[in-house]
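Need a sequence for this fold. Nothing fancy.
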């Protein structure tokens, strides 16, 4: 795949219009961005292209609108923040491929940056119909001469701005995508050992494919978050009112047996913070993981589990973490996630490659006061990272390996 570095070295981009697919899907509280990590991660590619004299046309999505404009999903706040980070004006088009987009791009000079409105305001972006999706891609492609794919968080989607545009324009991978792929290769191709994978989050079903694939790669799997209760129940333990996926119990039992046969260590919590309700104000206590009261639900791993997980990570050379250990958004249930992050910071300082797998995990470490540079790598694409680790083909990457790599 041609990279942005190749593009900058080989092609004269001055006066060229470059369409950049970024991942600007940030959390919002009204009009306030609560975590701008993805915007910051998108800045280097946009900045490099602008400084090379290209007219940079940035496109992205935010949230899950249903193919029509919704004020709460507008990228207007993102345009403002992107301009602040770039320290240059960002012209905002109030549509994706309509009159505003066309006129805003036409008025932009070399070195200018334009951000189009939310791609998902157009039904063609996510359409399953190849013709409808392709028609929207042609309208996007008409705005530019070159395409740069720099939104790793969407490369697992076969969408117009991710897949179809790359088939229409000369293209390259942005530094963000290139870095993500390089890191994920280190996790899947001869990783430095011991190699531990920490999985949390709500549902075990979301990560079944990852677990199955990693049983042949990782040395240890540490399981926390809401998904742990399906594992505990599969071992015959009471889990009270905790999150449970009954339909996955047989699958989990199979994984426990397979891990034992392959010599892969599965580490489960030994204590749990159990509460009477899903609330920061609810009565809660630390109980043994195999003795959760029937009238309580688990909302975090306990202190002994935090210490156990830290011990299991202490000698590792490679760690991948996806999913918080508990309901970290509420202070009484944040300790487990914070302790895990501290353990990763320590092994990072000792030379291990630590990868925080995007999504809630990235938001959690920032919310809990950690900085990105305390870890080896913070992914911008939770779902894409997981599908890569499952061994799935990612359409937004495979298309970049295809044609349209000739002269600009």
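Here you go.
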């Amino acid at each position: 795949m041609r990279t942005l570095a190749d593009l900058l070295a080989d092609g004269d981009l001055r006066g060229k219009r470059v369409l950049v697919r970024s991942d600007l899907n940030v959390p919002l509280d009204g009009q306030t961005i609560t975590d701008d990590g993805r915007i910051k991660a998108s800045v280097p590619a946009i900045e490099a292209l602008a400084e090379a004299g290209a007219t940079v046309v940035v496109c992205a999505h935010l949230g899950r609108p249903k193919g029509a404009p919704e004020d709460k999903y507008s990228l207007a706040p993102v345009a403002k923040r992107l301009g602040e980070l770039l320290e240059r004006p960002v012209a905002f088009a109030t549509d994706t491929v309509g009159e505003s987009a066309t006129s805003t791009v036409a008025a932009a000079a070399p070195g200018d940056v334009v951000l189009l409105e939310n791609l998902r305001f157009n039904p063609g972006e996510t359409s399953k119909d190849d013709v409808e999706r392709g028609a929207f891609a042609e309208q996007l492609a008409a705005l530019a001469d070159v395409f740069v794919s720099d939104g790793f968080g969407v490369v697992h989607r076969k969408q117009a701005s991710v897949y179809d545009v790359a088939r229409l324009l000369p293209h390259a991978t942005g530094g963000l995508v290139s870095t993500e792929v390089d890191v994920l290769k280190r996790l899947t191709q001869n990783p430095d050992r011991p190699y531990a994978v920490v999985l949390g989050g709500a549902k075990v079903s979301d990560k079944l494919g990852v677990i199955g694939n990693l049983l042949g790669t990782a040395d240890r799997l540490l399981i926390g978050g809401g998904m742990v209760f399906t594992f505990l129940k599969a071992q015959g333990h009471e889990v009270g009112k905790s999150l449970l996926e009954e339909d996955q119990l047989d699958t989990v039992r199979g994984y426990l047996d397979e891990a034992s046969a392959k010599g892969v260590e599965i580490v489960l919590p030994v204590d749990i913070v159990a509460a009477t309700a899903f609330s920061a104000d609810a009565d809660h206590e630390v109980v043994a993981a195999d003795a959760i009261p029937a009238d309580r639900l688990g909302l975090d791993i306990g202190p002994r589990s935090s210490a156990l997980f830290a011990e299991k990570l202490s000698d590792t050379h490679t760690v991948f973490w996806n999913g918080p250990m508990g309901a970290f958004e509420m202070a009484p249930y944040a300790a487990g996630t914070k302790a895990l992050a501290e353990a990763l910071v320590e092994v990072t300082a000792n030379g291990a490659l630590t990868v925080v797998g995007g999504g809630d995990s990235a938001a959690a470490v920032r919310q809990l006061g950690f900085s990105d540079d305390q870890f080896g790598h913070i992914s911008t694409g939770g779902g894409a990272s997981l599908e890569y680790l499952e061994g799935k083909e990612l359409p937004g990457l495979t298309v970049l390996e295809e044609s349209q790599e000739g002269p600009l």
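For context: DSSP finds 15 helices and 17 strands in the chain.
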